[in-house]
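Recap from last week: sequence in, structure out.
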Amino acid sequence: MNYLIVGLGNIGPEYLFTRHNIGFMALDYLAKIKELKFAPDRYASQCSYKLKGHQIHLIKPNTYMNLSGKAVNYWMQHLKVPKENLLILVDDLALPFETLRLKPKGSSGGHNGLKSIEASLQSSEYPRLRMGIGDNFPKGRQADYVLSNFSEEELGLIPEVLERSLPFIETFCLEGIQQTMNKYNQ
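Predicted structure tokens:
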């Protein structure tokens, strides 16, 4: 069984530690733990590993956030991954920093990466791991906030957040979304 785990973010060193890139950070962390290396490929950097008979494919789209759907659609077709075996790791302004919440479907909430995926899949019914980045920004400054770096204090807490994302990902692949939500949603 194939699974596709997609971390959303923007490519380039200037975006490395921005709030919008927490999806990339989570996959980088998982790859480090599994001793994997991302390789550039079509529309994304990718790597994969086996987990109890399942093939887990990790991708970080290189299309920039607003065109993430192009990469997701290509890799789902290329790997023959059904929607229920897709998991999107996404930053979420509506959740406090450090909060992780798995959902089976939902709206884009104004997130351009999710809008692009919805347009490509013609559906909002796909699993996503919402990774809280908080909403500590003045009215009208949302774009500046998500593209700004995490604070020093937040950066100190990021490794623990990334560590907590791992059981969400692997339990999702092994036991399914309902069991994972029951075990780990806060």
